[in-house]
Amino acid sequence: MQPQTDKRDLLILGGGLVGMTLALAAARKGMTSHVVDRADPAELTAEGFDGRASAISTASWNLFRNIGLSDRLEPHGSAIASIAVSDQMRPGRLDFTPEPHEGSLGRMFANRELRLALFEAAAEEPLISWHSRAEVTARHRGEYGVSAVLGDGHELSASLMVAAEGRNSPTRDEAGLVLAKWDYTHRAIIAGLTHELPHDNVAWEIFYSAGPFALLPMLDNPDGTHRSALVWTVAEKDAAGVLKLSDRAFLAEVEKRMGSIFGEITAVAPRSSYPLGFHHTAKITAPRLALVGDAAHGIHPIAGQGLNLGLRDVGALAEVLAEGMRLGLEPGDAQLLARYEKWRGLDAFTVALATDGLTRIFGIPGRTASAVRRAGMAGIQRVPALKNWFMDEARGVTGDMPELLKA
């Protein structure tokens, strides 16, 4: 075994949006980290918009601002001024529109822009040692520290290991952390749309029994043409056929579901898809190990909260570790992991169950079910306090918030 050198506070396995944000948040608190990721950053930040985008809540935007990313990101975000919820485009629409002094409900960013900002900041941060295009061949967690061996034989060591590898986290599975999970037997079809009319910064969530059909406002193209990101849920058995449709046939299907709200759809970016499932770990920690993001909880994209849930993990973990280190504890201390577990466990589980429930309620077919849903939506529309609660949830400003996620 090679000698242990350059031991750091954190060994973050997974350098995606959540993992790299954690490394930067930790650095702001004075913590050092190794970040290991198998992906090639050049491929993840290649030119072009393919529809892959993320809704960044108000709380998550506060986090980005507090770790120094807002100036870099600000020009690339499209504000979400309101959210329109519709059952199959029938009468009885539900609108969430904040008062002017309350600001937006969040911002939409192409994932490429988020990665560029994170990767540029990480490359300039001396407290982050970034190992890209690297495979982990072995992981060790011991009484006094953790380590990982890379494919080139190099060994990295730290006080705490953090699994940020996403839904199929090998670190989580190797640790034996139990998952509750199920498959929705649906896929999300992702595409970027260019359209005739402006979206007016409205995010649309249109529910069909086969699954939600979301249109998310993106910044206009440099030539002034209007763009939105499409997330269309289809049954697994239909997904391959939808992906193989010609652009003309695909747009005809899209227009059938959204009507003429954006006028003519003039172009569609290459389509991609991913399977939809639910998973949640009973525990998000083990000795000298913490899970963040999709490694801990994977939810349906119905409310656009997946990444925001992971960023709340980041804020909580960074705060717990920093406070512990001020008291002389090391990051891998069991007391700190217990506090992180207690803080994040219930919130993550509540959001996961809520999104699962929404998916099931809006997936019940038939006119009677639709009428009941629209009656419920009309009731919410008439109760300002209830609408405000939903908007605060969308902004991520409820509950026990980490300091990094506060304005």
Automatic annotation (TrEMBL):
<protein>
    <submittedName>
        <fullName>Ubiquinone biosynthesis protein UbiH</fullName>
    </submittedName>
</protein>
<keyword id="KW-0560">Oxidoreductase</keyword>
<keyword id="KW-0503">Monooxygenase</keyword>
<dbReference type="InterPro" id="IPR002938">
    <property type="entry name" value="FAD-bd"/>
</dbReference>
<dbReference type="GO" id="GO:0004497">
    <property type="term" value="F:monooxygenase activity"/>
</dbReference>
<comment type="pathway">
    <text>Cofactor biosynthesis; ubiquinone biosynthesis.</text>
</comment>
<dbReference type="InterPro" id="IPR018168">
    <property type="entry name" value="Ubi_Hdrlase_CS"/>
</dbReference>
<comment type="similarity">
    <text>Belongs to the UbiH/COQ6 family.</text>
</comment>
<keyword id="KW-0274">FAD</keyword>
<dbReference type="Pfam" id="PF01494">
    <property type="entry name" value="FAD_binding_3"/>
</dbReference>
<dbReference type="GO" id="GO:0071949">
    <property type="term" value="F:FAD binding"/>
</dbReference>
<dbReference type="GO" id="GO:0016705">
    <property type="term" value="F:oxidoreductase activity, acting on paired donors, with incorporation or reduction of molecular oxygen"/>
</dbReference>
<dbReference type="GO" id="GO:0006744">
    <property type="term" value="P:ubiquinone biosynthetic process"/>
</dbReference>
<dbReference type="InterPro" id="IPR036188">
    <property type="entry name" value="FAD/NAD-bd_sf"/>
</dbReference>
<keyword id="KW-0285">Flavoprotein</keyword>
<dbReference type="InterPro" id="IPR051205">
    <property type="entry name" value="UbiH/COQ6_monooxygenase"/>
</dbReference>
<dbReference type="InterPro" id="IPR010971">
    <property type="entry name" value="UbiH/COQ6"/>
</dbReference>
<feature type="domain" description="FAD-binding">
    <location>
        <begin position="9"/>
        <end position="344"/>
    </location>
</feature>
<keyword id="KW-0830">Ubiquinone</keyword>
